[in-house]
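Z., the sequence and structure:
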Amino acid sequence: MTQRSFDQFFKNPRTWKEDLVAVGGDFSVERLLYAYQHGIFPWSEDPVRWYCLDPRAIFDLKRVHFSKTVQRKVKQKKFRISFNEAFSIVMQGCSYREKDNTWITPGFIEGYAELHRLGWAHSVEVWNAENVLVGGVYGVAIGKFFAGESMFSFESDAGKVGLFHLFEKLNQSQFELFDTQQLNHVTWQLGAYEIPKLSYLDRLERALGDAHPWIIPTSPG
């Protein structure tokens, strides 16, 4: 589809008053990139529902509140941290639920894996001493904007340790905006907060810049 076709498919979040801005479509790279650059994200697969929430939850990249326990585990190097080694497996870890249904269905994994292959989506992997994946985070990076999609922990604090290292790399790269979509208990404890949708869209526009892929720094933070 062309830019004009996407303009017609999605309601304009700046003028549309509801959170739901489109129903249908697919998880193609072109559609996903258009959506994220306009403050829109998918939240279901059958059918695909696209949202731009008001208010919107974000993190201040320099004011994330990690507990002393998490910081201690980081200093002790309790886990091995990697980036982009097991993207699809991280998504599968994020999709695991003991009771509730997950929104991270196979179509999401396939679509975002293609985003990852092309350099637009990234994962952080957290491995224990037995080299078993026990935590992770993934999201989409465009310009100086990062959309945090989901996090999981199979060992205590493993996902938060991964998030700590993600924020470290984002700050190295001078990112300007971290979107976490909506508040929950975990993100609230970490320091996320809400801003009006229009303020979010203004900040997003500035953070996107020339909308280049993120090259993750290899040097220590």
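The longest helix spans residues 158-172. The helical segments are 3-9, 29-37, 68-75, 87-95, 106-117, 158-172, 185-190, 197-208.

Let me know what you think.
H.
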